[in-house]
Fold:
Amino acid sequence: MRAALAWHESPEHSQGWDLHTHTVFSDGQCTPSEAIELAKNAGIAGIALTDHDSAQGWSEAEKRARELNMPLIRGTEITAEWGHTSVHMLAWLYDPTNEALAELFRTTRINRVRRTKKMVEMMGKKYPITWEDVLKQAGGTAQTTIGRPHIADTLVAKGLFATRSEAFLGPVSSKSEFYLPVISPQVDEVITIVKDAGGVVAIAHAGSFARNKEILSDQDIRHFADLGLDALEVWHRENSPEQRVRLLKLASRLGLLATGGSDWHGPHGKPNLLGENLTDPQTLQAIVTRGVLPVVE
Ligand code: AMP
Ligand code: ZN
Ligand code: FE
Ligand code: FE
Structure:
């Protein structure tokens, strides 16, 4: 166990991949091109782009990755739920023409717009913000996956909060009176769809209490492993040391891969730094072997 925990601190760090990042196509602050450039400069082995519920940033990222010879995995972070638990899933290397997946993203987009608009209407009674203000922060919704971060950015733009993270501690929090969940697909459904689309699927920040009172149990994760789940994201800043140990043990017992990612959202999106958590080369190789899409390089 200790050897796996120490991997980050080892000199092999530069051979690691950051498998979890966000751009302006969801709630990150940099373009896909900038993300690729920063990853190249950071000296990490490769990067996966995983905007929320969308593959819209892929073509720009692919172009820049080829220009810079920066290895790129195309992916998406999918919003799902299980019981009372909001679950984020990372899907990599799937066929982007898969109709079931495209339909899932379309539905989530509609549900996200409806829910975020309702939240803004409720919040508008207490704070001077409108839906139009929020759309402006998201740069329009045509290509951006809209969500709470854009409400937070609006509150910052109006001078009501100093940073996005401070707004997330206040009215934007999942514990606030204004919070509404996004109507989301079930975890088992997402696993089936991503596997049918030839992708590799993980549960993101599986031990995080940031948006949940209750997290997935060992039994839940065993059930998902039986359905074809590939991996657990172990190396993520929201997983405590205790949770990392728990998830690593579970992964080895269930034959799941253990991945790492920064969940980077740009310079002021979240404190998370690009490359702060990485996936080791052997795990990366297993993911690449399983996915239907090649790595861009
Ligand atoms: P939503 O999906 O609309 O409920 O919004 C929640 C998302 O906001 C999560 O996926 C977080 O990763 C993201 N997020 C972006 N920036 C921040 C931040 N500064 N603090 C907390 N969450 C953030
Ligand atoms: Zn995000
Ligand atoms: Fe997430
Ligand atoms: Fe994320």
